[in-house]
Write a structure and sequence with these properties.
heterodimer, B: alpha/beta, Rossmann fold, 2 domains, 5-stranded parallel beta sheet
């Protein structure tokens, strides 16, 4: 790990499940790395591909999106829409040199605090191994 | 007092100048006794950029150090700068070069293309401006007052932009997407499978995207009248992102994924990877004209040395 660098992870969590899962992890005092910055959205189906790309552009080393389990979406099928989008985003990230391994999505219910913490720990470890994305420095090149 | 107008080309193909010349006699409606064209590579043989002009039309984006210098010089001289065409506005087709290292581009262009004869096997280097690290839209280097997107923009759009610039009016672009102007019938907004443009024969009446053809209409700014899809050619997105969308490709991914097999999404066995795998060339489809101004405007794993 380069000196002074600590991963920055942006996690978009849906209000009804994954954010609840993060809450459960919190109130149960489960440990996961502080590299994760959670942004609450109403539904994973609300997450536009531009959110993910913007997070990387603004300096994230990894981006996570959490939704309800398939079939459990508060809005019926928002997570299905997100699911298709997510797979296309992976394809784009590989092509554009960021790499799909810096991007993760999962289904985490409000009661699954332990799963939330575990998924965050694993993702943090992966990003730590991959190292900094260093997009900012290249964005400044003429 | 006579107003002075200039045009210049940077990292473009001269197509936008040709579109300007397509005004034919109507050029005279702009360049009359009161408005003089003082610098224009395809029309006038002047070598020095004038010290002051009222309006400057710049075609092409930033590809090399020479482009940067000329863009800055023009900005210094002109009261109003108009970015004419998609290369100037968003980087355009040359922006796809941002997926490669500069050495790879030079090697491909000057050495390894089958039609190139290069006995030394080295790209030329003497007395040539250095490539910039990547392709930029004009607005990365100088302030742009008016943008006229299109590849090329229509002669009427250019004429209108010049008129607005001369008379101090605001030049407005349509705020809707190409789909709003496309005459094809949209039925259910469901896409069954992705096709390559050469596969099969498209239904002449129905929406091309609904038939699975890679049309960028939903994510592209209107104003062209949907003339490509009208004649059966899927929109390539040459007019850049629709109003308010920060990133044309991201908008298209969103639109495409939302509509793909939407009625069977909850059935067991439905696999979204199918969609991702059936897109043959994501950057080429989603960012053909706007990669250089996208949120991620280059291959992130490129080397940092210019």
């Amino acid at each position: 790990m380069p000196d002074g660098w600590y991963p920055k992870i942006v996690a978009f969590c849906c209000n009804w499940c994954s954010y609840g899962g993060a809450d459960t992890a919190g109130v149960s005092r489960m440990q996961y790395p502080p590299s994760v910055r959670i942004i609450r959205v109403m539904c994973s189906g609300r997450v536009e591909p531009a959110f993910v790309l913007k997070a990387f552009r603004e300096g994230a080393d990894g981006v996570f999106v959490g939704g309800c389990h398939l079939g459990d979406c508060h809005y019926q099928a928002g997570n299905y829409k997100w699911w298709r989008r997510a797979e296309l985003i992976k394809r784009l990230l590989d092509e554009i040199g960021i790499g799909s391994e810096r991007f993760e999505y999962d289904w985490i219910s409000a009661s699954e605090g332990e799963k939330f913490a575990e998924v965050m720990r694993k993702f943090h470890e992966r990003i730590e191994k991959l190292g900094p994305l260093k997009l900012n420095e290249k964005l400044e090149l003429l | 007092m006579t107003k002075k107008v200039m045009t210049i080309w940077l990292g473009g193909c001269s197509g936008c100048h040709i579109s300007l010349l397509d005004l034919h006699e109507r050029l005279l409606s702009v360049f009359s006794d009161d408005v003089e064209l003082v610098y224009s590579p395809p029309l006038l043989d002047f070598k020095e950029i004038p010290e002051h002009v009222d309006v400057a039309l710049i075609e092409g984006g930033i590809r090399n150090e020479d482009n940067v210098e000329e863009a800055e010089e023009v900005r210094e001289a002109a009261d109003v700068v108009i970015a004419v065409g998609t290369c100037a506005c968003f980087g355009g087709i040359p922006g796809l070069g941002n997926l490669f290292e500069n050495e790879e581009l030079l090697e491909r262009a000057y050495v390894s293309t089958p039609t190139t004869v290069n006995e030394e096997g080295e790209p030329p280097s003497e007395d040539l401006p250095e490539l910039t690290w990547r392709v930029h839209p004009l607005s990365d280097v100088i302030d742009v007052d008016i943008m006229v997107p299109g590849c090329p923009p229509s002669p009427d759009d250019i004429l209108e932009a010049v008129r607005c610039a001369l008379e101090g009016e605001e030049f407005e672009l349509p705020r809707k997407s190409v789909c709003d102007e496309c005459p094809r019938e949209k039925k259910g907004k469901v896409i069954r499978s992705i096709k390559r443009p050469f596969e099969g024969e498209p239904d002449p009446e129905r929406c091309l995207l609904e038939q699975g053809y890679p049309c960028l209409g939903p994510a592209t700014r209107a104003g062209c009248g949907g003339r490509c899809p009208e004649v059966g050619v899927p929109c390539a997105g040459c007019r850049g992102p629709a109003e308010g969308a920060p990133d044309q490709g991201a908008g298209m991914i969103s639109a495409l994924a939302s509509a793909y097999r939407v009625e069977e999404e909850e059935e067991p066995g439905f696999d979204p990877v199918e969609l991702a795998e059936s897109v043959p060339d994501p950057v080429g489809w989603f960012y053909r004209f706007t990669l250089a101004s996208a949120l991620i405007p280059f291959r992130a794993d490129r080397g940092e040395e210019p």
